[in-house]
Specification:
Blueprint (H helix, E strand, L loop, with lengths): L5 E5 L1 H6 L11 E4 L1 H9 L6 H20 L8 E2 L14 E4 L16 H16 L4 E5 L3 H9 L4 E2 L17 E4 L3 H4 L3 E6 L2 E7 L11 E4 L6 E8 L3 E6 L18 H11 L5 E6 L5 H15 L5 E6 L15 H5 L4 H10 L6 H15 E3 L13 E6 L6 H8 L7 E6 L15 H9 L5 E6 L6 H9 L1
Parallel strand pairs: 1-2, 1-5, 2-4, 5-6, 7-10, 13-17, 13-18, 14-15, 14-16, 16-17
Antiparallel strand pairs: 3-4, 8-9, 9-12, 10-11, 11-12
């Protein structure tokens, strides 16, 4: 008879990453080595996300011990779902290491002391318990490689993934050829408030999302539309505003490709409260977002001010502590913002005096804020830009998006190919979660920008390097 019930040995980084992880292994049992408890204890102090997660893990364990008693530790604590967690109820038990183990001869290296202790514990469990499969769960790929060398079954922690492969992520746009009208023959069209609408009767197995961007046809007859209503029987498409040429522009910015045109339409739509823009460097994410924010803040008076924040993760070495106010400390991280403001204020009207006056006005209406001080805040009638959102965890993303009060629009910008945070991957990034979880909500929209529009040098560097 095969081994059915498993014993999962959790590495510290799994609990640091997701404090609810011990409840996510269904009917299987969970084991915590003593060194993991030591590492959790060492990381509990501080105001970082990791420290908060560690303290939450300790509270979960403490609550189970207080209700079930210390005497039951040897037999394992029953994994009882904490109040407020909406997960399938686990039926396994939580075990702790109660006996010391001999360090494996191949693991006497003091540099990786904690990793070696965990591996030694797993090897000892394999020797003492052959009735079930012992699996080490870790976010650390190097530990999983060492485990494989020692013939220990090791897995990544998968429960934090939004989807299996980032290539499956919703792109926000579909391109249809002329056969679209043959597949959808039943179409009604009408004009309302200066816009053209199409009601299309749905066919079997088609897939539509609210505010999805649709390109139909090629050449001069191309239709660029947006899904404004999704019903079981039909969908309603609305032709988007053309920002490619002519008089239509946003704060002087015109779209250079169809994805940028869709992005400007989504950013300028008052019915859409949450927009995610993804794309490689140079696709225009920040410039388009900032232009739309200034147009709606200064010209249309829809929002009171623009707030910009981002995850402060550097590419190179740290530059140490920074003096000054919150805004001054954030200045080095906001180079992209400054560059784009310069583009938006490039006007010869009024000369140097006019530009200086414009920059002063923008400084009063664009506020730079640190993510560290977002907890507890509520933004009313604000246009909030979250830059470099690929470096944000799903929990941080939730903390940021729940800051939105009435009349606030939030925009997340990022490129999941440029993640600089340890243990975050393309499939576990908060940006990926946001795109995947919000795609069916009628007041959110997403578009993936494809083409770089910086310069021929930047385009060639993106492809060749």
């Amino acid at each position: 008879m095969g081994k059915s019930k498993r014993l999962y040995v959790l590495d510290t980084n799994v609990l640091m990453h997701d404090p609810t992880s011990m409840f996510r292994f269904e009917e299987h049992d969970v084991f915590l080595p003593m060194i993991v408890l030591e590492e959790l204890d060492a990381a509990k102090k501080g105001l970082t996300e990791v420290s908060r997660n560690v303290r939450q893990v300790s509270r979960f364990i403490g609550d189970m011990m207080s209700t079930q008693g210390v005497a039951s530790l040897e037999a394992g604590l029953e994994l009882v779902m904490p109040h407020g967690l909406e997960l399938p109820a686990p039926h396994g038990r939580l075990y702790f290491q109660t006996r010391t183990t001999e360090t494996h001869p191949n693991l006497l290296n003091k540099v990786s002391f904690a990793d070696n202790e965990i591996l030694s514990t797993v090897l000892a469990l394999q020797e003492s318990d052959d009735s079930r499969e012992i699996v080490l769960v870790s976010k650390d790929i190097n530990l999983r490689i060492k485990a494989a060398i020692l013939n220990v079954l090791a897995e990544d922690y998968f429960n934090d993934r939004a989807l299996d492969d980032v290539d499956l992520l919703y792109k926000g746009m579909t391109v249809e050829d002329e056969t679209f009208w043959e597949r959808y023959p039943e179409v009604d069209s009408w004009n309302e408030n200066g816009a053209t609408y199409y009601r299309v009767k749905r066919i079997e197995d088609d897939d539509w999302f609210p505010n999805q961007c649709v390109v139909i046809g090629e050449g001069d007859g191309t239709i660029e539309a947006m899904v404004v209503e999704v019903k079981a029987e039909f969908v309603v498409l609305k032709l988007v505003m053309d920002y490619h040429s002519g008089k239509n522009n946003v704060w002087g910015i015109q779209a250079r490709n169809r994805e940028q045109n869709f992005a400007l339409n989504l950013l300028m739509d008052p019915e859409i409260d949450f927009v995610t823009l993804m794309g490689i460097a140079g696709t225009g994410k920040t410039l388009l977002t900032l232009a739309a924010g200034l147009a709606q803040t200064l010209d249309e008076k829809v929002y009171n001010e623009v707030i910009v924040t981002r995850a402060t993760v550097s590419i190179g070495d740290e530059i140490g502590f920074l003096p000054g106010t919150e805004e001054e400390k954030m200045t080095p991280w906001m180079g992209a913002l400054t560059d784009n403001i310069e583009v938006l204020t490039q006007s010869d009207e009024g000369g140097d005096w006019g530009r200086a006056a414009t920059n002063d006005l923008l400084a009063n209406r664009i506020k730079v804020r640190s993510m560290s001080f977002m907890r507890g805040r509520t933004f009313l009638n604000r246009y909030v830009i979250i830059d470099e959102a690929q470096n944000i965890t799903p929990k941080q993303m939730k903390a940021l998006l729940t800051r939105a009060g009435p009349g606030t629009k939030m925009i997340c910008l990022g490129n999941v190919g440029q993640i600089d945070t340890p243990y975050l991957t393309e499939t576990t990034s908060g940006l990926t979660f946001a795109v995947d979880r919000f795609k069916k909500w009628s007041h959110s929209a997403h578009i993936t920008l494809q083409r770089g529009e910086r310069s021929r040098l930047a385009d060639f560097a993106s492809e060749a390097l």
